Amino acid sequence: MIFIDACLGKKTPYTPVWMMRQAGRYLPEYMKVRSQAGDFLTLCKDSEKACEVTLQPVDILGVDAAILFSDILVVPMEMGMDLRFEKGEGPIFDNPLTNQAQLDALHVEKAAHNLEYVYETIRLIRAQLDQEKALIGFCGAPWTLATYMIEGKGTKTYAQCKKVLYKDPEFMHAILRKVTEALKLYMSRQIEAGVNAVQVFDSWAAALEESAFFEFSWPYMKELSAYLKAKYPQIPVILFPKGISGYLDKIDGEFDVFGVDWSTPIELAKEKLGHKYVLQGNMEPTRLYDKAAIDTGIEHIANVMQNERHIFNLGHGILPDIPVENAKYFIRRVQERTKG
Amino acid sequence: MIFIDACLGKKTPYTPVWMMRQAGRYLPEYMKVRSQAGDFLTLCKDSEKACEVTLQPVDILGVDAAILFSDILVVPMEMGMDLRFEKGEGPIFDNPLTNQAQLDALHVEKAAHNLEYVYETIRLIRAQLDQEKALIGFCGAPWTLATYMIEGKGTKTYAQCKKVLYKDPEFMHAILRKVTEALKLYMSRQIEAGVNAVQVFDSWAAALEESAFFEFSWPYMKELSAYLKAKYPQIPVILFPKGISGYLDKIDGEFDVFGVDWSTPIELAKEKLGHKYVLQGNMEPTRLYDKAAIDTGIEHIANVMQNERHIFNLGHGILPDIPVENAKYFIRRVQERTKG
For residue B158, which residues of chain A lie inside 8 Å, CB to CB? Predict the structure, then answer.
């Protein structure tokens, strides 16, 4: 698989490309299945429909890898937290974590067991997906999951998390340890069900200042990736801590691919991390509004990453109002431009 | 004035300190005046009340500088755009900019003239403020103002702005040029009314990738600051483009102080910009939830900036739910710690 070869630093005939959120709302085919399923969580739990939307961008756009359709919050949900999605508000945990007793009541092994519908989705996808295309499994980073578990919903200031972090850092670490244990089991089961690579999304890494990132986020991501690399050395691990361009030189640990978000100049990522890791990214997602902007964006990144170990992607998820035609154009242009 | 001396790179008996949004909702005294005034815009236009809330943090916390109480959006409003603040939604322009005719209808000289209530506020403050304390005037950066003028309200993705930027960059530049001209007049009038320094807030600088920042934001900030420095060389200019740690080494131009946000490590700002500019910042605002976290934060920054040209501040605005006692503690501890 060209995508897996690229993750492992091998030469490939062109730079493989996929897009974060490629199975998503910009695709009419996705919207149709989504409306049949009812709400978002129902779609995540319906293995056949989740398989169907996972495969859509492979067929429609010709991306080099599929990424499992699911949500990072199914893990805390199956650990025992009540999750619902409110229209316009996003995810809500009705009883956010405030004390040790609540944390003690959460399950680790049972969560990994209850996520069987995800493993079933993976088996269905792998049975139908072209043998030359990779399937990427994923999870949220412990820190990012903890922000939802503590805040109960999305937040601008992360006020509750910061209060826990400064006033009761031991409780914060206890949450992060438990989530990390659950993720080790969950990602192992994803791999055993058939994913060919895994990506860990630390979407809210930038909610932490440098010292806090290296205390509360990065060690747990590294622990998870080291665990997986020891157990499954052939499975590439991609880490994506978003928005940390100020301290890339302190990134270390055992993993294969570093996901570069669009706020980090690709030149900077290459300088600081290109010798240690394969880089993935990082076109500014709004460039997909315009074909000329797509061309300029590809040209810039392709020039910088010429002869470097690279996987093409957007620097954040594709937006819901991107024309499908432009998404197709992006994928095709990357594959043409990087040939040879 | 110790604050002005520090802005100009002179030795001071201690590192002066103030806080972004120091006249704000965390102060019961502010909430009282705010509720008397009715809504937020009325308070901005009421020179006596705006003066009163500007002076509150100087009296209550002992900060080394006052910052004019106003809002960055009074400029596009007085240029001719209908502005209202909706509870829970923030600012809204009911007729966002979509075409050249709308832009042509906006006023530059008339805006600067209509903002007389701001100049009156400044005169009232300067008449009552301690002679040793500086008064900081401010405005939004052209790019940040343009985002509101085009989107009509706050946005997560800046979709409309990005479409203009990629599909019609000339229109974007026309908006930015006109706003910059209005700001030159407005900031000149603020200085003539009595402010001792000015700060330009580019709150949404990080909405742009590097190449776009250096095309659509930074040149206009530089143009404004160069204009003001040529006309008023004794007035320090502070520029605060938030969240651009990935390309600090490309920052140049004529100004005095670079405002460092909390996502940028202070060590990095010192390395890249400390030789060229005085640095202001950058304590993580949520540290003010906890006194021990305040101490650790101050210690770290004070150690890095020992013997450097520095003004203490938070790395973003103070949050509405910070205990006043902790805000006082922060100010006092900075002044004590940096003495000598």
Answer: 286
Query: Sign of dihedral through CA atoms B39, B45, B46, B50?
Result: positive
ipTM of the complex model = 0.95
Tokens in use for B112? 């600067």
Is A34 assigned a catalytic role?
A: yes
Give the number of C-alpha atoms closer than 13 A to the C-alpha of residue A244, restricted to the C-beta side. Answer: 29
Mean pLDDT of A311-324: 98
Is the pLDDT score of B329 beyond 80?
A: yes
Residue B293: CB atoms within 10 A of its CB come to: 22
How far does CA B272 lie from the centroid of its chain?
A: 22
User: Which residue is listed with tokens 């908006």?
Assistant: B175
Give the whole-angstrom CA distance, residue B134 versus residue B149: 31
pTM: 0.96
Tokens 């000149």 sit on residue:
B188
Mean pLDDT along residues A185-208: 98
A128 vs A130: CA distance, rounded Å: 7
**Main-chain dihedrals φ then ψ at residue A177, nearest 5 degrees:** -65, -45
| B170 to B147, B165, B175, B216: CA distances (angstroms) | 15, 8, 9, 11
Q: How many CB atoms lie within 10 A of CB B299?
A: 12
> What does the DSSP 8-state code read for residue B153?
B
- Among candidate residues B266, B162, B152, the one with its CA nearest the CA of residue B213: B162
Is A206 at the interface with chain B, CB within 8 A? yes
pLDDT digits (tens, 9 = 90+) for B44-90: 999 999 999 999 999 999 999 999 999 999 999 999 999 999 887 88
* B332 in catalytic set: no
* Interface contact A263-B246, CB threshold 8 A: yes
Chain A CA closest to residue B297:
A211
pLDDT at A105: 98
Asked whether B77 and B83 are in contact (CB, 8 A), the reply is yes
Of B206, B268, B289, the CB nearest to A166: B289
The two beta strands, B90-93 and B83-86, are antiparallel
Please report the pLDDT score of residue B32 as a whole number: 97
Instruction: Give catalytic status of residue A148 as yes or no.
Output: yes
pLDDT band at A109 (very low <50, low <70, confident <90, very high): very high
- Shortest Cα–Cα distance, B158 to chain A (Å): 9
Average pLDDT taken over every residue of chain A: 97
User: If residue B256 lies in a helix (H) or strand (E), which one and from where to where?
Assistant: none
| Active-site choice (B26, B30, B34, B186) | B34
What's the CA gap between A150 and A142, in Å, rounded? 12
Within 10 Å of residue B243's Cβ, how many Cβ atoms? 23
Predicted confidence (pLDDT) per residue in A34-74, tens digit: 999 988 999 999 999 999 999 999 999 999 999 999 999 99
Query: Does the annotation mark A25 as catalytic?
Result: yes
Q: Are strands A278-283 and A310-314 parallel, antiparallel or unpaired?
A: parallel
Burial class (CB in 10 A: 0-12, 13-18, 19+), A35: exposed
Q: Which residues of B touch A163 (CB under 8 A)?
A: 286, 289-290
Phi, psi of A339 (to 5 degrees): -70, 145
Q: If 0-12 CB within 10 Å is exposed, 13-18 middle and 19+ buried, where does residue B307 land?
A: exposed
- Asked if B112 contacts B182 with a C-beta cutoff of 8 angstroms, the reply is yes
Q: For residue A88, is pLDDT > 90?
A: no
Give per-residue pLDDT as tens, A251-287: 999 999 999 999 999 999 999 999 999 999 999 999 9
